[in-house]
Amino acid sequence: MLLTMDQGVAALIAGLAGTIGALGGGLIAGTAAIRGARTAGEAVRQQVRDQAVVEHRQWLRGQRQQAYAGAVRAVEAFIAAAESAMFCGDDDRPQHMARVVETHENFQATAVMINLVGPQEVHATLYDCSAATNHFRNALHDWAADHTDDQERVTAVIERARALAPARSALVDALQGVLARASPFSGATGDRG
Description:
Elements: H1 2-87, H2 93-117, H3 123-146, H4 151-181
Helix pairs in contact: 1-2, 1-3, 1-4, 2-3, 3-4
């Protein structure tokens, strides 16, 4: 009978060991599952954050492309209107000057958009181009209002027209530079720093 008791005790010990092993294994498996779920959750959260950053960069690049293209079109329209006003007859000049004012206002409106979407590095170049268009418009307005061939005013118009060309080129170069750095494959927004 002693033998039977030893077998019973052994069975009980084996049963307890199996239960403890199962509980330990379940606890370890549960802990691992919780850690795995946390890790997977963090990975999903990081992926969502990364995707949001990429989408924001793409959105900002699109906004910049629109604003920059609008500014270039507007400054080109202003230059064309100013040239028309310079070379038209005296009777047609008021109509052409109205177009100069309109296209200048359009350029100024696009400049506001560029100030909003940036980056900061284009603001100085934009300001220079804006100032050049203002000076050119003012000189042209003074000359057109005079109705004489005052050489001083004609010279001022020509000088302002010449000053606008490099300012326009510098603006286009700066805007193109930002867009080139903000390639959709670079992961950048075109901002420096």
